[in-house]
Amino acid sequence: MVFVPPTRGTLPPRFGEGVKLVPDIGPSTLDAEVYRDPARFQLERTRVLNRSWQIICRSEQIANPGDHHVWEGHGESIVITRRPDGGLAGFHNVCMHRGTRIVARSGTGARRFTCAFHKWAYDIEGNVVGVPDREDFDPQVLEGLCSPAVDLDEWGGWVWAVLAGPFVAGPLLDWIGPEIAADLGAYHMEDMVLVEQLVWEVDVNWKVVIDAFNEFYHAAALHHIPAQDVKDGRSACMDVFGRNGMMVVPLKGVLDRLRATGDHQGLAICHYTLFPTSVFNNNPEHVQLFRSVPLSVDTTRFETWELQYASDDPDYRERTAKHWEHLKVVVAEDVAEWVNLAAVKRSSAYTRNVFSDHEAKITHYHRVVEDMVRGGSGLGLEP
User: Fold this and answer.
1) Quick one: how many helices (H) and strands (E) in the chain?
2) Which superfamily, per CATH, for 28-51+177-373?
3) Where, residue-wise, is CATH 3.90.380.10 in the chain?
4) CA–CA separation, 125 vs 100, rounded Å?
5) How many CB atoms lie within 10 A of CB 167?
6) What is the spatial distance between Cα 366 and Cα 206, in angstroms, rounded to a whole number?
7) What global pTM score does this model have?
8) Over the stretch 256-312, which tens digit does the pLDDT of each residue have?
9) Whole-angstrom distance between the N-terminal and C-terminal Cα of the chain?
């Protein structure tokens, strides 16, 4: 199979004449307590994270009936299983008897799950189907007992979930929005395969990770990119759509061709922020997902997923492998800088963040978080 790169085709232009460099948001400041207040983090868990569509795993990781994936983050644990009909089933991984975890790890071929503590059994929908010494329990309590369900869908080769359950966040494609669904969808991630996944545990708030991938401003200093890329990067275009956003960055000498053709997918690096915990870093030939998984107010599991197209083209495979090795070094530089952030996160001198108009996506992102913390939907915010 010969690799064919993605192209913009008939999609709207995201770069070039008539396209704004930045949305009309402007500079802003943000109180440091947004990143370190434990009470706020609890509100973010219940009002933002649990009520949002989040990526859980690749569809290929649970491809066959009975394959199941255990996901854990921000105090929650869920298990998602591939049904015999090819659909998905998922529920909170918590035994309704004494509150222990039912399934300890991901696996294959499951028909039911059994809690190791007292052998309570659950079907793949989370219904209690087996209770030892059932006659000793109140039958009314056991009637219809199940672990709470999560909402599930698949798009782009990814499994997505809403932990607060069905009918909370609305349809997945509405959450992604038509602009991002079309633009990010042009990469056909469902045709890609997972090559590698890197995981770090970092001592910073989960939003620090998302901030890092929502601007190009840090690249010159932290990643030591060539002077021409620094100059060309000043022409990066960004925009926001609903809760989400994107950025087109013209690096590696593509600026003139990008201006002439407008083909941002085929030439530039495109970032897509999928609120609340995911950022896609799309190179023309391969894609990375940067995912922030909150563990506590100031501890985060940071994951980097490398996707490449299923191709037997040796030149394509060599190019992408080489570029991926380079990108691993770049990502490690971000992780190392979070150590410096962690070292002073409780300092009395750290009182606020100051964002420029070229960090507008960060400003918008935090306005969406704040709106949802206050009970809103995160939509309808003025730029």
Assistant:
1) 12, 18
2) Naphthalene 1,2-dioxygenase Alpha Subunit; Chain A, domain 1 (3.90.380.10)
3) 28-51+177-373
4) 17
5) 8
6) 12
7) 0.95
8) 999 999 999 999 999 999 999 999 999 999 999 999 999 999 999 999 999 999 988
9) 44
